[in-house]
């Protein structure tokens, strides 16, 4: 997690999406229900990327925006919102009815199991067999027989249910803060955020703020994605709006409701996309447009009140077994003396 400065990973959303997201990629949205990476999603739409197989544990505004823009061919998920309720669906349902979107449906547990398997380098993982009694197991979409497989346990001989590992090409994820090298810190409802990022081949991190590396080192328990795995870091204040980011701002219920109403029809969704995605070149323009239309006071009301956790003491007497004179602290000898002694006693390996 130490700072390396080997490569400048800080860039704009436009550059990050252009460099690391390709047409026909397997794309995963790392955030789960809250604090989603809205601006990264919008930038994908603006660049007219397409042909994705999208992984998303919870299809909220982010997934519907991508589907409305025609970016997705296939979806792997556990849930999507229905903006129109019983009288009509959102973008996902419209696309499925039109035959332009295929969907593979999993339980939350089975979806997460696929990410965990991919994160740990497994090719598959065992899941609970109770799902075999449901249509989730019986009905197969574009994955066919690979959605679930039943194999024989090599230890008990019993049949066990498995799902394949997921290793998407790229993950887009929004966090509270990161340093310039890509150490990404996140706190709050975790869901599948860490696993979604770490099972992926490339990772684009957007954050509310970029902080110094010393801030990261002072709270290492909050780092869920280490720098060596991250390809790009994008600082985007309000980058998850209208969803919430713990410690920064609340869910914008008014604006989210406005999206839901618009998304209930194809015409409404098109008008909303034209105004808030295509009509705003970046997040700064989006926030400016919001303030002009509704007043900056609306955003001010959403800003989080400070509620800090108690600091943890990560201090120690020293950080190395060797003192400032190069002597081992317990025995008081140098490394050269230690090696010589070990060699004399036949304990030094070549």
Summarize the structure.
By secondary structure, the protein is of the alpha/beta class.
What percent strand? Answer: 15-25%
Number of helices: 13
Looking at CATH, the homologous superfamily of the largest domain is: Glutaconate Coenzyme A-transferase
* Oligomeric description of these chains: single chain
N-C termini distance? 31 Å
**Radius of gyration over all CA atoms, rounded:** 24 Å
Q: Approximately how much helix is present in the residues?
A: 25-40%
- Domain count: the total is 3
Low-confidence stretches: 1-5
- Broad structural category: alpha/beta
CATH topology assignment of the largest domain: Glutaconate Coenzyme A-transferase
Gross geometry: globular
Average pLDDT over all residues = 94
- What is the second-level CATH architecture of the largest domain? 3-Layer(aba) Sandwich
CATH level 1 name of the largest domain: Alpha Beta
Largest pleated sheet: 9 strands, mixed
Q: Helices and strands, in N-to-C order?
A: HEHEHEHEHEHEEEEHEHEEHHHHH
Tally of DSSP β-strands: 12
């Amino acid at each position: 997690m130490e700072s390396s400065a080997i490569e400048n990973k800080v860039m704009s959303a436009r550059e990050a999406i252009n460099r690391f997201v390709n047409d026909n990629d397997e794309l995963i949205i790392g955030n789960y229900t809250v604090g989603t990476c809205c601006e990264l999603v919008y930038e994908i739409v603006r660049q007219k990327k397409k042909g994705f197989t999208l992984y998303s544990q919870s299809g909220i505004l982010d997934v519907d925006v991508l589907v409305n823009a025609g970016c997705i061919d296939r979806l792997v998920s556990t849930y999507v919102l229905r903006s129109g309720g019983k009288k009509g669906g959102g973008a996902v349902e419209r696309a499925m009815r039109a035959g332009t979107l295929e969907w593979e449906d999993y339980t939350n547990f089975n979806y997460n199991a696929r990410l965990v398997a991919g994160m740990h380098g497994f090719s598959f993982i065992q899941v609970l067999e109770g799902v075999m009694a449901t249509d989730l197991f019986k009905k197969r979409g574009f994955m066919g027989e690979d959605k679930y497989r039943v194999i024989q346990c090599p230890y008990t001989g019993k049949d066990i249910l498995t799902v394949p590992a997921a290793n998407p090409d790229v993950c887009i994820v929004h966090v509270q803060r990161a340093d310039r090298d890509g150490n990404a810190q996140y706190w709050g409802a975790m869901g599948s955020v860490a696993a979604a990022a770490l099972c992926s081949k490339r990772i684009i991190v957007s954050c509310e703020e970029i902080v110094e590396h010393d801030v990261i080192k002072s709270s290492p328990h909050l780092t869920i994605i280490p720098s060596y795995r991250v390809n790009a870091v994008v600082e985007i204040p309000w980058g998850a709006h209208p969803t919430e980011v713990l410690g920064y701002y609340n869910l914008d219920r008014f604006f989210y409701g406005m999206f839901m109403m618009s998304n209930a029809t194809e015409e409404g969704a098109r008008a909303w996309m034209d105004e808030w995605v295509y009509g705003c070149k970046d997040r700064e323009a989006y926030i400016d447009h919001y303030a002009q239309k509704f007043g900056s006071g609306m955003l001010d009301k959403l800003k989080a009140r400070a509620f800090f956790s108690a600091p943890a003491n990560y201090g120690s007497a020293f950080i190395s077994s060797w003192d400032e004179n190069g002597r081992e602290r317990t025995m008081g000898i140098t490394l050269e003396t230690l090696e010589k002694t070990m060699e004399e006693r036949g304990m030094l390996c070549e």
